[in-house]
Amino acid sequence: MRDSQSSETLTKDPCSSSHTVVPELKFLCGADLLKTFLTPNVWKSEDIQEIVEKFGMVCVNRPGCDPLQYISESALLTRYKHNIHLVEEWKQSEVSATQIRQAIRQRKSVKYLVPDSVIAYIKEHNVYPEE
Prior knowledge:
Structural class: alpha/beta
Number of domains: 2
Shape: globular
Distance between the termini: 62 Å
InterPro entries: Cyt_trans-like, Euk_NMN_adenylyltrnsfrase, Rossmann-like_a/b/a_fold
Oligomer: single chain
Keywords: ATP-binding, Mitochondrion, NAD, Nucleotide-binding, Nucleotidyltransferase, Pyridine nucleotide biosynthesis, Transferase
Number of strands: 3
Strand order of the largest sheet: 1-2-3
Main location: mitochondrion
Radius of gyration: 22 Å
Helix content: 25-40%
Protein name: Nicotinamide/nicotinic acid mononucleotide adenylyltransferase 3
Strand content: 5-15%
Number of helices: 6
Pfam families: CTP_transf_like
């Protein structure tokens, strides 16, 4: 952009209000869920492809899991491995989201595993009905 009064070139401030930042939506999961991508009849291959191709993943490693192996065992995951971001848990938790969902469905307490506001939301919206 040129200022009409001078020959100086003006640059646009990237922090100005006219600069639009578009957030990226990623599928966040644990490595235990990534492993289910390899299990027949759990996921449709077109759903897996849509997740890893269009959105990408952030996959948190779990004790006893090997997400790099899961990726290498799948041609589809290998093709989109550039869009699968692996994260090491900084604090090891022996409880996975899968275990929390199962406990809620079985009407077991998850009081000290998730925040009270999350428990209230899950109950209010019946997020995990009994099986």
